[in-house]
Structures are given as structure tokens and as C-alpha cells.
Amino acid sequence: MNLDANARANAERCWETIEASSRIGVGRPGGLARLALTDSDREMRDLFCGWCREAGLAVTVDEIGNIFARREGVEPDLAPVLVGSHLDTQINGGRFDGVVGVLAGIELCRTLDDLGHRTRRPIVVVSWTNEEGARFSPPMVASGCFSGRYDPEWVRDRIADDGARLGNELERIGYRGSARCGFEVDSYFELHIEQGPILDAERRQVGIVMDALHCAGILAEFSGTTAHTGPTPMDRRRNALAAGARWLTAVDDLGWRYAGTGGKATAARLSAWPNKPGILSDHATAVCDVRHSSPTAFRVMLAEAKIALEHAARRTNCEVAILDEWAYGGEIFDAGINMSIRNHASRLGYSWLDVSSESGHDAYFMANVCPTSMIFVPCKDGISHNNLESCTVED
């Protein structure tokens, strides 16, 4: 049968799932602290899988915990269309970031069932593991693994601040699946709240993501020597904590130097051991990222960040190693799909706007393996990664 051209999803039903999600892993008032592979993440995964099975979807979990819920197509041998995002949040996260992209996928399948419509290709709703990277660094490791960027064992070997190993936590919460990570995909769609007040300020209903800011991240490890802070002379100190702090301060300065042209550099995190008074730290890891709309300026900023890395190590008599690097950005989203989204938005009477994305998303890795699109929805004042994220059911 043909799909009704004016068909709409059941917004109230979708909102009910968002409200249910907002009660799991509660953080600051109105927000969430549902970090990857914690007990609250397991509770949310269980609820999501239950909803999927109730909707008649076949649920599969792969070797790094990605959840795939499949609605069969008329031609089941065709590569499926993937729709999704992530259910984990930042430590001070909101109720919508990532979550709406997954739960909208369930509502898509429910609505198609209500309409009695069978799609030609299968539709697979996906929830990616550890998108935020708030517990296990770096972010987006699961979609990175799916796209071939990371090896599954490397992903499972990521260590959290609390000493937990990602692979062990997958097993502890019962979400290390048997399926291999990765399969052929026709296309990928990700719905997400905006992360800058563009749609909200201009009163537009749909943001069509054209491109992504050029971005690169570095995870570096500094090695020094523990020693007493009292008697140890300055010229004999090898303080890994100081090395990491010097590097991240230099990165922050780098961002300010390029701020006038729209550049950004972020000192994202620093962890050290023992990290106690009275003793120098012999180990530190630090994460930074640099971003710019200009590919040339972006490359210069990245080179300067690496030079600063070596300077910080020499200044503190420490060794340094880059443990991981990741990069994405540019015109990575599919022009044909985006044109289709514009046409359908106009036909349905929704106001739309072409926008750029300045944050990392699983869609960035997926764009390496299939035609990919992101759709933004308004969020009050563009606030995200914060308990004050606010959307309406109309959004």
C-alpha cells in the first residue's frame, strides 16, 4: 500500500517514551547522569529493548553493546536503513541529547505499523554504546568501531576513571552481544536537538545539517616519576600532572588566538595518578580538541596543538605518547537525502533551515560507510550537555 502523504508520527506517544527515559539515571534537577554501562544505562537499555520487542522489532546486540532493533522490509535481503543515536548522557546531561534520536526511531516503526505500511528495505533502530565518552574515552567509539575506525578489542579495553574496563562492564550489565560489529547499511539518519540557538532564535522547525566543523581530538599520556614534593629539587622533578596541565593551558591559549576567525580549542579533561598532596604524579592522561570551519586553519591549529604537546613534555622532563587521535568534519552529509528532507519538510508545512554541526555525533563515522543525514530540532536557547535542555512535544 502507499503511505499517506500527510501521515504524522504519534507525537504524544513519542513524548511518553522520552518522559519514561527521563526517570532513569536522574542527575541535577530536570537532567540526567546516565553514563555508559552503569546500572542506570542497563535499566534504560532494558526498557528500550522491551519497547522494541513490544513493537514487533527483532532485537540484536553486537560485541560492543550496540543495540539494533529491526523492522523487516518487503525485500529483507536488501541493506537496511539505520535510524538512531544514543541513550547514554553526559555527567550533567539533559533529557533530549541523543535520546530523542533513538526514541523517535521506535515511534517511526510504531507509526508505520499503525498505518499498515511495509517499507521495501528493512528499518533498523540503533542505540550506539558510549557516544558521549563521559565515562570511557574517546567518545563515539561504538559507531567508530562499526565503521571500521576502531578494533572491537581496542574498544573493550577502554578504561574509565573508576578503573572499570569497558568490556568487563558490558558483561556485568549483560550487554556484550555475540553479533559481529558492522554490517552493510543502505543509509543512516540521526535526529538530534540543535546545539546552538539557531533554530530556536529564528523560529524554524527543522534543521537540515549540511556539513560539520572540521574537528580533531587527541588523547595523550604523560609519564613521569613519583617523588616527595618537599625535598625534590625543581630541576629533578618529572611531574606528569604538570605536563598535562601545561599542554592543556597551551591548547586553551591556542583557541583564544584563533577565536576571532571562529576557531575553538578545548582543554577537555585531565586525569593523573596519584594526584594527591605531597607527591608528584607519575602518570597523566589529557584530552583536547581543535575545531575550525576553514580546513587550512584547522590543520594549522592541529599542528600547533601537537607542537605544544612536545613542549609540555620537555619542560617537565616527562615522556609523552599519543594514545589516540580522531578527526571528522567537512561536507560529509548526503546532498541527495538532504534535498529530499527539504522537499518533504516544505510539503508538510514545516519551516526549515540549512545548518552546520559543531559537535561530534555518531553520524560522522557513519558518513564514512553510507549516505548519511542529520536532522536538528529546536532546543530552547540551544542548550545541550546541560540539565536545562528544554524541548516541547511540538518540537
Characterization of this structure:
The chain is an alpha/beta fold and 395 residues long. It is 31% helix and 23% strand. It has 11 helices and 11 strands. Strands 1, 2, 3, 4, 5, 6, 7, 8, 9, 10 and 11 form an 11-stranded mixed beta sheet that branches. A hairpin with a 5-residue loop joins strand 1 and strand 2. Helix 1 packs antiparallel against helix 3 and helix 8 packs antiparallel against helix 9. The protein starts with 10 loop residues before the first helix and ends in an 18-residue tail after the last strand.
Total E-strand runs: 11
Radius of gyration: 22 Å
Tell me the strand percentage band. 15-25%
Instruction: Enumerate how many helices there are, as a single number.
Output: 11
Low-confidence stretches: none
Q: Structural class, please?
A: alpha/beta
Shape: globular
Q: Alpha-carbon distance between the termini?
A: 29 Å
What pattern of helices and strands is seen along the backbone?
HHEEEHEHHHEHEHEEHEHEHE
Major sheet description: 11 strands, mixed
Arithmetic mean of pLDDT: 95
Tell me roughly what share of residues is in helical segments: 25-40%
